[in-house]
Design goal:
single chain; 257 residues; alpha/beta; Deoxyribonuclease I, Chain A; six-stranded mixed β-sheet; 4 helices
Length: 257
């Protein structure tokens, strides 16, 4: 079954979130459009601004792409995209990188990179990376995981961002896609969502606004704000919707912004 490549961006409901107006969303692009742009960027003579400073420090601009494989030269291309788009944060999913057979992914100048990868006897695929600017105050949050959820801990990343009195917990996640030949993805995703729920609620108790993006592989159908969506749901949809309700998150694509 063809995987749904659309990304979903989440944020705490605007009635209680005063930080949404300080965050700029860079819409995720379909993979074909992304690959085309990568090629265009490679053809340009883009000179990185090593001492670049963002004009509006109160705005955080971020993007998310599922690159579906970390090919040679990808890190240079991602650097060009970050530079041309002026991103503070780029979350990349399905790098297919592995901890036991790593492929070097180098951060652009003035950026750090944080990878979360599968390894050993873990199944193939997956692989996450967050490339974030050193101009923002960010902390890689790696909370302890109960033993029963150890096997899904590399499917998510928490980047904590502080800006004065504002505190944002930025979640990057990859939810397993529906598989018509094997139902193992159901328990995998159930455990991953349960882990995310616990971690999100703990961070909220500590005063963080929760934001999330990544590849949720969940078809939500035609809803307000996304009337042009295809109408179908998939087997990930019920658990995804329950996660939104449990953590009190709203799909930003559905808001009039």
């Amino acid at each position: 079954m063809k995987k749904d490549r659309r990304k979903t961006l989440l944020a705490k409901k605007p009635s209680t979130n005063k930080s949404l107006d300080k965050l700029t969303y860079c819409p995720a692009k379909h993979k074909q459009k992304f690959v085309k742009k990568l090629r265009q960027q490679l053809q340009r003579s883009t000179i990185p601004s090593h001492d670049r400073s963002f004009k509006d420090a109160s705005t955080i601009k971020f993007g998310s792409w599922n690159i579906d494989w970390l090919e040679p030269g990808t890190h240079e291309t991602l650097g060009n995209i970050i530079e041309s788009e002026g991103l503070h944060i780029l979350a990349v999913s399905e790098t297919h990188n592995r901890s036991d057979q790593p492929t070097e992914l180098t951060a652009p100048p003035v950026y750090d990179i944080w990878e979360s990868t599968r390894g050993g006897r873990d199944k193939g695929g997956g692989g996450l990376a967050i490339i974030y600017s050193k101009t923002i105050t960010a902390h890689e949050h790696k909370p302890d995981v109960p033993p029963e959820y150890e096997y899904v801990k590399n499917e998510r990343q928490w980047l904590l961002i502080a800006d004065g009195t504002n505190r944002c917990a930025f979640l990057h996640v990859y939810i397993a896609c529906q598989n018509s030949r094997n139902n193992s993805f159901i328990q995998w995703n159930e455990d991953l969502f349960t882990l995310l729920n616990c971690e999100a609620m703990d961070l909220r108790r500590k005063g963080f606004v929760i934001m999330a993006l990544g590849d949720f592989n969940s078809w939500i159908g035609q809803v307000h704000g996304l009337e042009d969506n295809h109408p179908e749901h998939n087997r990930n949809t019920p658990r995804f919707v329950r996660f939104l309700e449990e953590v009190s998150l709203t799909i930003i694509n559905t808001l009039p912004i």
